[in-house]
């Protein structure tokens, strides 16, 4: 028997996929109607989270944040059988994952943080990525169950909380990536380019292939052999901003990036490769 606490878009599709595999699942959600709707696929819904975990040997969570995870876990404590494994898919802080792992082990349970790079469609199709780190004996034991939920499991060793850190780093990239596309769309509009123009450019030139080489260059520590000088990158950034201003289009990221470039130019790095702006982070 499994329990699933938190049946929003992601959690509900995890449950639907479990039911397709013939697994018995007891569910709870703070908005009861969302859990109740899963009875249509054969899950059993409960109004009380402590009741939802009774009889379950594996309890899954997909909640909002550290606070909600702590609140729900405390609410279900009396319903948990000794030795129950709690698998938390919530994106949380690294510190929260470390604290809960220690705290719930002391209470006689196993807490395993397992954040995901998965959307609702991935949860339904058992695709995407699930991240794990910590007690490797525990992970070995539950990995076959977790593998059925996702496309690929990424293991990051025995360091508790590392999976949480990797998830946050990955999400930071996705946030910046999406905001960068927004900035590109704003500039393109200011320049009179259509979305189809951008699509045709990226069909021919895929900047995604630059990710790993750029990461290596930014962290290598040697910026003295430039392929694009910081001074020249700053000049082009000025052109972006000027074009947007002339079209009365507001940019959000590029002015901040220009200020960052200026700070490194002032430090004397203008003739270095422009990736020197990562020197203090690498």
Secondary-structure blueprint of this entry?
Layout: E1 2-5, H1 9-20, E2 25-28, H2 32-36, E3 44-45, H3 49-52, E4 58-61, H4 66-76, E5 85-88, H5 94-106, E6 110-113, E7 116-117, H6 120-125, E8 129-132, H7 136-147, E9 152-155, H8 162-190, H9 195-204, H10 211-219, H11 230-246, H12 253-266
Parallel strand pairs: 1-2, 1-4, 2-3, 4-5, 5-6, 8-9
Antiparallel strand pairs: 7-8
Helix pairs in contact: 11-12
Describe the structure.
The protein is of the alpha/beta class and 282 residues long. It has two domains: 2-165, 3-Layer(aba) Sandwich (Rossmann fold), CATH 3.40.50; 206-278, N-(1-d-carboxylethyl)-l-norvaline Dehydrogenase, domain 2, CATH 1.10.1040. It has twelve helices and nine strands. The protein has helices spanning 9-20, 32-36, 49-52, 66-76, 94-106, 120-125, 136-147, 162-190, 195-204, 211-219, 230-246, 253-266, and strands at 2-5, 25-28, 44-45, 58-61, 85-88, 110-113, 116-117, 129-132, 152-155. Helix 2 (32-36) links the parallel strand 2 and strand 3.
Going by CATH, the architecture of the largest domain would be: 3-Layer(aba) Sandwich
**Structural class category:** alpha/beta
Strand percentage lies at: 5-15%
**What is the CATH superfamily of the largest domain?**
NAD(P)-binding Rossmann-like Domain
Oligomer: single chain
N-C termini distance:
46 Å
Instruction: Tell me the overall shape.
Output: elongated
CATH top level of the largest domain is Alpha Beta
Which regions are unreliable across 5 or more consecutive residues at pLDDT < 50? Answer: none
Number of helices: 12
- Largest sheet, described in full? 6 strands, parallel
CATH topology of the largest domain: Rossmann fold
Order of helices and strands: EHEHEHEHEHEEHEHEHHHHH
How many domains? The number is: 2
Please give the radius of gyration in angstroms: 24 Å
Mean pLDDT: 97
Q: If strands are numbered along the chain, what order do they take across the biggest sheet?
A: 3-2-1-4-5-6
């Amino acid at each position: 028997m499994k329990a699933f606490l938190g049946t929003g878009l992601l959690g509900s599709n995890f449950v639907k996929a479990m039911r397709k595999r013939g697994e018995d699942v007891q569910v709870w959600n703070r908005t009861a109607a969302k859990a109740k709707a899963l009875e249509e696929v054969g899950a059993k819904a409960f109004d009380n989270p402590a009741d939802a975990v009774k009889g379950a040997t594996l309890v899954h969570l997909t909640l909002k944040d550290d606070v909600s995870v702590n609140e729900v876990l405390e609410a279900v404590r009396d319903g948990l059988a000794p030795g129950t494994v709690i698998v938390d898919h919530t994106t949380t802080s690294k510190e929260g994952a470390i604290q809960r792992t220690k705290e719930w082990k002391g209470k006689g349970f196993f807490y395993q943080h397992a954040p995901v790079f998965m959307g609702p469609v991935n949860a339904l199709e058992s695709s995407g990525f699930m991240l794990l780190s910590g007690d490797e004996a525990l992970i070995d034991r539950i990995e076959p169950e977790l593998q059925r939920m996702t496309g690929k499991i990424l293991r990051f060793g025995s360091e508790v909380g590392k999976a949480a850190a990797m998830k946050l780093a990955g999400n930071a990239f996705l946030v910046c990536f999406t905001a960068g596309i927004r900035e590109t769309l704003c500039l393109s509009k200011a320049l009179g380019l259509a979305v189809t123009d951008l699509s045709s450019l990226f069909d021919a030139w895929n900047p995604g292939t630059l990710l790993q080489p750029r990461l290596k260059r930014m962290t290598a520590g040697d910026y003295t052999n430039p392929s694009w000088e910081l001074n020249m990158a700053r000049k082009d950034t000025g052109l972006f901003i000027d074009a947007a201003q002339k079209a009365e289009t507001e940019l959000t990221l590029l002015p901040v990036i220009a200020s960052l470039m200026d700070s490194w130019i002032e430090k004397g790095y203008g003739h270095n490769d422009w990736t020197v702006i990562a020197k203090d982070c690498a």
